Amino acid sequence: QDCYERAIHSLESARIWPSAASHSKVALARAKVMNNEMDINLTDIFKWHDDNRYENIEGWTSRYVGESLLNIDEKRLSEAEDWIKRAIEVDTKNGTRLSLGHDYALYAEMLKRKGDLSEAKQKLNKAIEIFKECGADGWVKRTQATLKAVSKEG
């Protein structure tokens, strides 16, 4: 959180890369949610997402919105799914493959929470395939371990 706060301060103080500052604000909100700090304003998060004008982080930012929603409240699963699908669509269009792999891994997590283990495994396999294409060996191993754990569940 501290790194995102410093990045936001630096970018805004220097008045450079406003899209990067907006992305960092979404990322900071996500970090707070992951630390069970729920004092975030979803309206602000959606605005910061919309403030982005940088194609190569559009999917990444959409995924962070989806991940935030996924972890705020179980009642927001369908809304989170919409944002994750949006991230997949954008990253596919923009050719941002590594981000796309992360999109599929997050989609699998969302599906697992919904109880759809079969579909979650398919999304994990897709993420592994993409990570392999990118040469992201660490992400391949991590995602394979997740797939193995999901396979044991059902």
Explain the overall architecture.
The protein is mainly α and 154 residues long. Helix 4 packs parallel to helix 6. The chain is globular. The termini are far apart. The mean pLDDT is 94.
From the structure above, extract its key features.
154 residues; mainly alpha; 8 helices; 0% strand; globular
Q: Radius of gyration, rounded?
A: 16 Å
Number of DSSP E strands? 0
- Helix count? 8
* Secondary-structure element pattern, one letter each: HHHHHHHH
Structural class: mainly alpha
Largest sheet: none
Helix content: over 70%
Strand fraction equals under 5%
- Gross morphology is globular
pLDDT < 50 stretches: none
- Report mean pLDDT, rounded to a whole number: 94
Termini separation comes to 36 Å
How are the SSEs placed, and which strands pair?
Blueprint: H1 2-14, H2 18-34, H3 42-51, H4 55-72, H5 77-94, H6 97-114, H7 117-134, H8 137-153
Summarize the structure.
Helix content is 84%, strand content 0%. It contains eight helices and no strands.
